[in-house]
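Here is one chain, start to finish.
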Amino acid sequence: MPPIYDILTVKKGGQSLKQSIRKKNSGKKFDIFIGKYYIIHYMARSDIKIGDRYGMLTIVREVEPTIRIEGNGGINRIWNVECLCDCGNKTVVQFSTLKKSINRGTTPSCGCKKFFNRSKLEGFDRDETIVNMSKEERKEVVKKMILEGCNNKQISLKTGCSESFISLLRKNLGLGKFIIDREIKIGEKFGLLTIVGIDENNTSRRKRVLCDCDCGTKNKSISYYPIKNGDVTSCGCYMRSLSKEMMINTLIPNNKIHGDSKKESQHKYIYQIWMGAKQRCYNPNNKRYSTYGKLGITMYDEWINNYPLFKEYILTNLGERPIGKSNNKVDCYSIDRIDVTKGYEPENLRWATFIEQANNKHKS
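Its structure:
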C-alpha cells in the first residue's frame, strides 16, 4: 500500500500545541510542519491482511486511520479497515475491535446480527388488551408467560411491564431469570452426566439442571453452561477416581500399607523409632529438636518418606530389638547412632541400652 498523508490544522492559539507535538514526536522524520499544517506520513500496518475473516466480516481494504492528538501532544492513530459483511453490506470498523473479538469470543458484524436476534421477538407484539388490564390481572398473565418459558424481553413487549418487575416476579416464583429455557434438552448426555430436569429451587440467574451420573448419583444440581462447554463431565466421581488411581500408582508403592502403626503390630516399636527420629530431626516444635535437627542431625534421604525401607534395613542388618535384663529403663534397648556427629543413616545405627547411649554423647 502506498504511503498515506494526513493534514491536521493547528488552530489559532495552538503554538504551544505545535511545540508539544514536535517534542512528543521528535525523531520521526516523516512528521513535519508546513506553516500552520501538521503533515503526517506513515506506511500501512503490517498485520492488517486483506481477506482475513473476523466473525461475519472480511477485510476488503485498509482506509485512512483516525488521528487523535492527546493533551500532552502525543499522536494516537486508530487504524480502520473496510469490511464486507456476510449479509452483503460494507462497513468501516476499527482494526483493534476485530482483534479483540478473537480473545472475547464475539462475532463482529455490520450490525445485521442485532436484527437476526430480533427474530426471537416475532409474535410478541404489544397487546393492548393485556396492557389495559388491572395490575393483578397483568401479574397473572406475566406469571403464566414466565412458566411457559418466555424471556423478559418477550414478556415486556407484549404486556408493557418493565423487565425489573418481571424479574421480581421470577424471584417470587423461586425461579432464576434464565431458569426456564428451551435450549436445555431433557435426556441430553454430556460425558457421564444425563440431564433429567431443571433445578426449580435455583434462585440465581445462572441456569442449573438436575443430572444423573453414570456412577449412580441421582438429581445432582449442576450449573448448565460448564456442562455444555465440557468443563464439567461428572458429579465429581471422575476426579475422585483419578485421585484414587494416582494414589495407588504413585503414593502407595512408596508408602506401603504396613500396619505397624496399630497397637497389635509386632513391629510397632520400629515404626515409633522411625517417627521419633524424624520428629527430632525435622520438627522445630519438638522438645529435643535443639540437640538433633538444630545441630544438623538428619535422616538418610531414602528413609524419610519410605518406612518399609527403613524397617527392612533394621531387621536385615540389626535384627529384632534385644530383650533387656529387666523391664527397667536402663536395661532396655533402643536405636543409637554410633557416631553422634552423623545422622540416622546406614552403618551408623546399632541397638544399645540406656547406659550405653548415655556414654555415647557429644563431648562438651
